[in-house]
Design a protein that fits this description.
The structure is a homodimer.
Chain A lengths: L15 E5 L3 E2 L5 E2 L2 E8 L9 E5 L26 E2 L4 E2 L4 E5 L14 E2 L4 E2 L9 H14 L5 E7 L1 H12 L4 E7 L7 H15 L17 H15 L2 H7 L18 H14 L4 H13 L10 H4 L6 E7 L7 H13 L4 E6 L13 H16 L4
Parallel strand pairs in A: 5-8, 5-11, 6-7, 11-12, 12-13, 13-14
Antiparallel strand pairs in A: 1-4, 2-3, 4-8, 9-10
Helix pairs in contact in A: 1-2, 3-4, 3-7, 4-6
Amino acid sequence: MPETIPQDSIGLVKSSTFHFDQPLSLDCGEILDSYELVYETYGELNESRDNAILVCHALSGTHHLAGYYSMEDRKPGWWESLVGPGKVIDTNRFYVVGVNNLGGCNGSTGPKSINPKTNKPYGPDFPIVTVSDWVESQSRLTQKLGIKQWAAVIGGSLGGMQVLQWAIDFPDSLRHAIVIAAASKLTAQNIAFNEVARQAIRTDPAFHEGHYYEHNTIPESGLRIARMLGHLTYMSDDIMAEKFGRALREGSINFDYGIEFQVESYLRHQADSFVGTFDANTYLLMTKALDYFDPAASSGSDLSAVLEKASADFFVISFTSDWRFSPQRSHEIVKALHDNDLNVSYAEIESHHGHDAFLLALPQYLSVFSAYMDRVASECTE
Amino acid sequence: MPETIPQDSIGLVKSSTFHFDQPLSLDCGEILDSYELVYETYGELNESRDNAILVCHALSGTHHLAGYYSMEDRKPGWWESLVGPGKVIDTNRFYVVGVNNLGGCNGSTGPKSINPKTNKPYGPDFPIVTVSDWVESQSRLTQKLGIKQWAAVIGGSLGGMQVLQWAIDFPDSLRHAIVIAAASKLTAQNIAFNEVARQAIRTDPAFHEGHYYEHNTIPESGLRIARMLGHLTYMSDDIMAEKFGRALREGSINFDYGIEFQVESYLRHQADSFVGTFDANTYLLMTKALDYFDPAASSGSDLSAVLEKASADFFVISFTSDWRFSPQRSHEIVKALHDNDLNVSYAEIESHHGHDAFLLALPQYLSVFSAYMDRVASECTE
């Protein structure tokens, strides 16, 4: 718990919920008759309603971008380092919106929610949602919030994929698209990592084909494996060497299967905190949304062709040691944007933090990102 | 089953077993009073007994390097592409020996073997063995075979680590050390991948703390996850893109958790064949041997210092796209060998096959490896 909330934090925040009664047709063919989206806003929407920024979250993210829920809250929102008064995404200048994705487990309708048709949790019957579905639902939230056009839509990783989809599906609804540590589609290796994680969850006997809520259990072992594996791929070899190396927890080898190396301790700790907060069915859905994302698929895998629809100015950011979505993947996006004569800024940040770098307050990252946000702000009404 | 055994194969082969009654003191402090090692030999030991080559195997390898056990045998030994008459490791010139490591599951004493003290399988009570322990046991096999000095000890991956240990522990017992796709110690990332695999096995309810034999079950789910994850790290992003890309098995997305992408099908198939043949307790032991391997640890992490003991000529080979043990890791070995003025040849093979490249018949690899083996042969008596 912070003794006092840091001066540069947005401070105490709270979530809101919108209920949607207009049926949502999903890519999978199913229809959600009604659903809720939980969201948070920081800063003030100006009179012209042109200073709004949407932040899309990644696999395990939420609508809670910044601030604390109470003085006893131990951790701030997941992008506290970038969102707040005077920060890169400056809540003194922008009206910043975070929304929990449909299918999530933090308040928006998802597998843990009660299915009105059965009065039981959806569980595995919650439809598999796609990045397109999310963007459609976010567009409806946009209308409810009275926003005609976002000053910027911003996201890292899976969040960056939503930004790309926004620029394709609703080109007039955003002036800037900021795509961080993302890719226009997963590689076979990316899909394979997701599949191993899914298999770990789905073959855990406590999974009960997704109906574990009714058995008062969770597929804890499987979800732990999924999280450890995921986390491992978010870090670079270099940062792991620096953080842990071959350091032993007790200084010597014990010749048993307890925790010996510090890195083992770290991974188990990450798994511990994750299983207490994240829903396994949501994890499965999120990895599927990642696998399926491929906006160019309908254009014969021609990313340039599908981005013809886009009109936003783009800022694309990658990190040198990100091996999940390497700079090469961002180059592909930048090239396709250039093919369409769109305004593109590109920053390749020197960092040894791997994919996780997009969450961190790295000086070079903050500096170029701030400069770009100054430009975004300069186009908003005072 | 091969209709006829290929002409260039060593052909039909069979295994032999040596029983050792001399107690073996292990690094973990335990003593194995007796044990068996299963091995295969190909070619003829010459009169001077100076044309013998030992091949050490990797994590899931065995003593069965080449040839077939019967005309109905569907697959040859794991290094068929390199071991045989007229091949790189030429059985017309060399007497080639493969041995299953202690703790293995293919005939040498290991967790599946009967513990003479309990008349039950060792299971989790089989001591954790190290690379040093293996080399010590292999040295005893060397004596039994009547070999004073190996013309070469050769190994890839974990096998290459055994070669390094041979050169340090028994410098006079080998003339050439051929270290392929290996490293002088694991990184934190390597250890982390092993730990995730171990956790998958150990948290499988069917694992029964390693006593699954007595429950007539195997921790199949956990072993499958371990294998899929391992296999994934043996391939490069590039080769997976080439082999599978984003190809769908049925041409379209089904929005369910069945097999959709070809890469998922491939991984599940790999897992299927592995669980039928490999023992989970052995998998655990092997990953521990990998984690623990660090011959320089006793010399203040100074690899050059510990290699002062070595006197063999070295051939070190790495593969450009191997991200498990990258060329950088081989450079570290080469540097330490140079520091000791040892004769070192180094080949960095251009390949997009990842770590698995060491198993494959890649032209550049075969070519440089053959040239080196000519040199090894030239020093053997006719």
